[in-house]
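Notes from the 1:1 (GR / supervisor)

We went over the backlog. Supervisor wanted to see one worked example end to end before approving the batch request, so GR pasted a single chain during the call. The sequence is below; no edits were made to it. Supervisor asked that the structure be written out right there so they could see what the output format looks like.
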Amino acid sequence: MMKKHISKLFFSLAVMLIPGFLSAQEREISVEDQYYEDLKNEKNKPENIIFAEKLQAKLLDNDIDGALALFDSIPKSLANDPDFKLLQASLYLSKGNTKTAEQIVRAVLAEYPDSIEAIEILSYIAKVTGNANQVKQLNDQLLKKDPYNVTANVIQGEDYLLNKRYAKAKESYAKALKGDSANEDALYGYALSTYYLDDVKTSKQVLDKMLEDHPQNPEANALRAKLYAENNDYKHAVESVECALEYGGPNYDYYLDLGMYYKKRNMTTKAIEQWKKAVAMDDSYFLAYAYLAGVYDEQNDVQNALENYYMVIKTNPEYYFAYEEIAILEYHNKKYKNAIYYFEKAYNYTKNYSYMMMIAASYYRLKDTLNAKKVLEKLMKSLERDSLEYQIARFYHDSYSKNAEGQITQKLAKVDNSTIRGKMLFYMGQYYEINGFDEMAKEYYAKVTAMQAPMFFEYRLAEWGLAETSKK
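Structure output shown during the call:
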């Protein structure tokens, strides 16, 4: 936002500083003609114009350091000019030197307390330094002077977006657009807030118009990609995110999105490449690891999946789903102590019956019957005694009973919920496998794997169990 402000401010100043403005009017020639006439003769150039030209050249080359250095030799006629001081402050701000920028702006405000431009820059400084109270105070001041002030409304809109107050954000951006209908920040903010409000049609219209005028805006291209994806048009989604990366440079979120769109196109290798780029950009954030772990998991690449799940919990210890996935994979790898540890970690986040059953099964596979029974006893205390879950937990706990088996079989046949039925079928299959009855285990595992669209993690364990018992 500040770069746009800097360039607009500079060129308005350049016009103000054109010499001979009054004489040009008296001679009835345009200011532009007079300006170029003066340029033909270097002797006619005042020092303020020479300074302005040098400054303009530095800005056009995006040489902020060079532009700032010029202020060391600013002509006396411009040294106290408030507009040039604000331009200097903006340049410092673009370099991240908020302290010096604020000192200059406050000096201007001390002499010109009603300067809208100075208050705008001070508001932006307050925002980037995290002074929320001052941002509100300055924005209220700006909006009191002008309800459609672009800077104030854009900053306010950004804050509303961060707090997920999308309707209020939309209102703020709409007011900013009344102040400047072509403002990129306001257009993008309006498109983003309508997207979050599920008004995809309006968001698309605003973005399409915006991209006609600003085809290189990375944020607009990235958001347009999301709209393509909403319509399952992943080819154009990929193209739009690639534009965002081309114009905006490397971006963690864009790499995540691009990887997802490639995956939707069944281009898994390319998806992995993008997520690895995200990791290379920021190896301290968990999301790219989670995407990588998930895709490796789908491919049954257990080692790579585990490596990335471990990175997920290293970078985000609260992401309990990763504990579950690690536990499942370690169980599959027959590393039952590891499985117990991570099922316990998952259970600390959500008291899931399945985790306790898997902990008990892991102990049984380790031939640690005592701890297996302790886990099951604790589990049974939390269950209704006439529930199917209780009966299966007790079946694991007690010595084999044909009568108990028959009661479970009868109850299983009456279960309508496919997820519950599938999970319980798995645990019966696992019981038989643990106890060496592979044919019975295969029968139960086959019933689980025959289910459509399974939504429980035991399904994968049933697939592995079926494959394992079929080898014997």
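Supervisor's comment: The first helix runs from residue 2 to 16.
Batch request approved.
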